[in-house]
Recover the amino acids of this structure.
């Protein structure tokens, strides 16, 4: 697949065959395996936050089917397909027990995975996740927004945005964004939540942490609170001076907060 | 056969909205607070009257379509409007172009409604199928990413429901229907004509050629229309037949008046409403992710970037006229424009011919329609000036007597099992005393009758 390379932070991924799907991933570091599931964008990059993680743990950052350099397979219909894909991905890497971290869309995916395989997780960290219903607060419809409106709500720190924003005239990047947004729409168009998670997440017994942004203008802060409410014993931590893109805005603070939680629960 | 068919298309716009500079999209997010049902009452009834009047003016058909949550076309249920037009007209075809089949939970419902309309109208329905524009998906749980697949699957399901005896089971990717058995069956054989509106997608052109569906080019510059019709011809040749002109239709908003000058004077602002207000659509509403395949997305946006193609909302009146999106002028000017579509592009019909563009005063819509019918239509017709359908036989007899003569004795007369009778009762004669009394003198009815 001909995928454009971002201006900053691009690294060549490794590829592994996962049940017929050539899956791109980046992996660095040693120690506890930490599987990181990205959100609906910021693909193809080895971000500073990843680097910080890799100084302390074995950090594994795959690209979801239909994102980055992992193509979108015909079989991808819903989150169940992602859960099975990641189970198989971990089997290919020979990893049984691990720490799971997911950001935004990746947070939803991580919650789904945890609801199916609760006993494989050493810990679960959800960073500004989506996927539960807030009855009085459906939030912003991402898909109604123009790209510039979307990044405005994603990033409170425009300098951080500059480090990852593609050249707005790069047509290949525009097409890549459409490709990834199509995968995102396929997964979450309707409904924008999984009501079953409210019940299923109650069987989690691993340590769990919900990481909040100080001022998330894209996803209501109540969403993270709702996850913390539903998951038994989940703690929360707020990263100061951040929006929904906290992993890029405050990479060090975000990584350190999560690493502290992981190390406490080893 | 006439050179060109003319269809009266009403989009049913609602014009009483804020200035377009005050909102970013007249679709999806323009609040229905701006819709006044009292005004709507008058507009709907004027619009329906015009669609009905198309028959007396001599049009080849009246056309309606489906759109949701917008001011451009307030017709979320085109089948409702078609039902009203059908019962107020006698011979004229009525086209629904179309039902947005991927958006409906069960396509069998569309098969049923069209079949009902076809039966009620005596076989006058043209059945268009559309995906709905991208905006439509915001009002719907169907992901835009599934739109194309659902469209083709629903198309196949509906066609099978019309043409093969039921019941059968549909086991598709997007639809599972345990029992497909559409009552009523449509009158037209093998099925009502299918039209697919398109904007140049290759897949649509190929499927039109393959299935002998009519391709209907949506508002587009002349060059694009030519490209699409040429492609359709090629695809038809690949399928082994010469493309009949009837399979190529173009939607060209047309306004005619006494002189060119007067026509522009009257039409300009309304055409601009149609394109610049009615079709003022935020690009994220127009193209939700996955509505276009990645290939189409790349093709569309590279045309915009490299060739300066404009979205409808950015087209000036000069663009619209010069590029052939619309035709405005005297009867002679309009006829020249149509001759080009007919002779050079090979079009067999024009939609939006002498039809309202944008929210016009009713008198203006009628003026356009009358001059169009009297001074343009005859130029493309045989000497009798009739639409083709009046020269073709009707699908079924027009009167009780004709139908009775055609039908003869039914294979299955309506019957009911009757208590006390060896045979079933023929419901057409059972009420006669010699037939009914024997059965009534059984059981409880006997006691009741003897009471008198």
């Amino acid at each position: 697949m001909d995928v454009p390379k971002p201006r900053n932070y691009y690294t060549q991924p490794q590829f592994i065959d996962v049940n017929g799907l050539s899956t791109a991933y980046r992996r660095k570091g040693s120690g506890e395996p930490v599987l990181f599931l990205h959100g609906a964008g910021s693909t193809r990059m080895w971000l500073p936050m990843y680097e910080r993680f890799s100084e302390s743990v074995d950090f594994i950052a795959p690209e979801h089917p239909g994102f980055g350099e992992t193509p979108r397979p015909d079989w991808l219909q819903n989150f169940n397909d992602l859960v099975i894909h990641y189970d198989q991905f971990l089997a290919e890497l020979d990893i049984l027990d691990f720490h799971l971290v997911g950001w935004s869309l990746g947070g939803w995916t991580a919650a789904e995975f945890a609801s199916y395989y609760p006993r494989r997780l050493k810990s679960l960290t959800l960073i500004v996740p989506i996927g539960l219903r807030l009855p009085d607060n459906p939030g912003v419809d991402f898909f109604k927004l123009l790209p510039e409106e979307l990044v405005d709500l994603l990033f409170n720190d425009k300098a951080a945005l500059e480090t990852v924003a593609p050249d707005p005239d790069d047509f290949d990047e525009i097409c890549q964004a459409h490709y990834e947004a199509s995968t995102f729409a396929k997964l979450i168009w309707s409904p924008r939540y999984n009501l079953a998670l409210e019940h299923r997440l109650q069987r989690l017994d691993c340590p769990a942490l919900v990481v909040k942004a100080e001022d998330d203008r894209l996803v209501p802060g109540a969403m993270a609170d709702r996850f913390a409410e539903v998951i038994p014993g989940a703690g929360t931590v707020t990263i100061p001076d951040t929006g929904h893109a906290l992993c890029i805005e405050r990479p060090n603070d975000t990584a350190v907060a999560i690493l502290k939680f992981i190390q406490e629960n080893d | 056969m006439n050179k060109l068919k003319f269809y009266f298309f009403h989009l049913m716009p609602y014009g009483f909205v804020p200035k377009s500079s005050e909102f970013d999209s007249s679709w999806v997010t323009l609040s229905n607070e701006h819709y006044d049902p009292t005004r709507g009452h008058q507009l709907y009834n004027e619009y329906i009257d015009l669609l009905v009047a198309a028959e007396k003016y001599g049009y080849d058909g009246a056309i309606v379509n489906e759109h949701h949550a917008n001011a451009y076309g307030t017709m979320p249920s085109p089948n409702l409007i078609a039902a009203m037009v059908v019962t107020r007209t006698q011979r004229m075809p009525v086209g629904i172009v179309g039902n947005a089949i991927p958006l409906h939970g069960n396509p069998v419902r569309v098969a049923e409604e069209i079949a009902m309309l076809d039966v009620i109208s005596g076989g006058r329905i043209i059945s268009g199928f559309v995906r709905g524009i991208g905006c439509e998906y915001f009002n719907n749980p169907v992901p835009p990413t599934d739109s194309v697949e659902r469209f083709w699957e629903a198309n196949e399901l509906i066609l099978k429901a019309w043409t093969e005896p039921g019941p059968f089971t549909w086991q598709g990717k997007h639809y599972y229907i345990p029992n497909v058995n559409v009552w009523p069956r449509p009158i037209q054989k093998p099925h009502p004509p299918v039209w697919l509106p398109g904007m140049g997608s290759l897949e649509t052109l190929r499927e039109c050629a393959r299935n002998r569906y009519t391709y209907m080019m949506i508002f587009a510059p002349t060059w694009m229309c030519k490209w699409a019709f040429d492609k359709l011809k090629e695809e038809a040749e690949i399928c082994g037949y010469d493309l009949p002109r009837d399979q190529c239709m173009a939607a060209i908003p047309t306004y005619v008046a006494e002189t060119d000058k007067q026509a522009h004077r009257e039409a300009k602002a309304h055409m601009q409403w149609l394109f610049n207000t009615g079709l003022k659509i935020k690009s994220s509403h127009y193209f939700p992710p996955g509505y276009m395949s990645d290939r189409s997305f790349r093709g569309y946006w590279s045309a915009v970037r490299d060739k300066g193609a404009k979205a409808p909302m950015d087209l000036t009146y000069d663009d619209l006229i010069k590029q052939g999106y619309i035709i405005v002028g005297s009867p002679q000017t309009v006829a020249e424009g149509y001759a080009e579509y007919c002779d050079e592009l090979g079009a067999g019909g024009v939609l939006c011919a002498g039809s309202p563009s944008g929210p016009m005063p009713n008198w203006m819509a009628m003026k356009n329609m009358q001059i169009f019918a009297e001074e343009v239509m005859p130029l493309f017709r045989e000497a009798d000036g009739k639409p083709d359908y009046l020269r073709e036989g009707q699908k079924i007899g027009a009167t009780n007597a004709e139908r009775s003569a055609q039908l003869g004795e039914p294979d299955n007369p309506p019957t009911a099992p009757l208590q006390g009778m060896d045979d079933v009762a023929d419901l057409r004669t059972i009420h006669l005393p010699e037939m009914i009394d024997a059965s009534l003198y059984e059981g409880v009815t006997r006691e009741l009758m003897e009471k008198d």
